[in-house]
């Protein structure tokens, strides 16, 4: 457990300004918590982390441009001091698995009670790992029932991000523009993803994503 200096300094990263305003009202009621900056996407969040060096980053996963998982991995590659608490609408355990593999220190869902967010921030700031009860139970069940043949758990962080965007109906051209990489790079990822998931085309990929809760219908 790490020594914590108060107030705990927090960076909020979420693309919805109304949602961030709600977080701010909740967090600022706590005298020992302080929001030092806000970002609307992962790229801005990364730059603001470098600038402000917050104690905890509270980050969504689904954002325009660099998604949360890719941003977490980028932060983890830069420093082992970045403590990221994922606060996401995604309740499927596969999202938590990939976020934790990328380097997140905690994962809670947006259906969690307000006091859970406060506790999670405190625990992550102390250097602990924190999972909300709902996602922890699903992860435990998923580890027992998971069918390795799906291949989803074997996707790399970037492959999972591209998989999610493909499943949401974006073209490879759109994904390349959103992630600021070449179309050829995304085309290569698409080929690798199809091979790992044992699917032949985008339609099969989308059906697989729906079946495993990656996207909703």
TrEMBL record:
GO molecular function: DNA binding
Pfam family, one: Response_reg
Modification type 4-aspartylphosphate: residues: 60
Domain HTH luxR-type: 148-213
Cited SUPFAM superfamilies: C-terminal effector domain of the bipartite response regulators, CheY-like
Matches recorded under CDD domains: LuxR_C_like, REC_NarL-like
Domain of life the protein comes from: Bacteria
The UniProt record lists the keyword Phosphoprotein: yes
Entry keywords, A to Z: DNA-binding, Phosphoprotein
All copies of domain Response regulatory, residue ranges: 9-125
GO biological process: phosphorelay signal transduction system; regulation of DNA-templated transcription
Keyword DNA-binding belongs to the record: yes
PANTHER family associated with the record: TWO-COMPONENT RESPONSE REGULATOR
Protein name: Response regulator containing a CheY-like receiver domain and an HTH DNA-binding domain
Naturally occurring in which organism (per UniProt): Beggiatoa alba B18LD
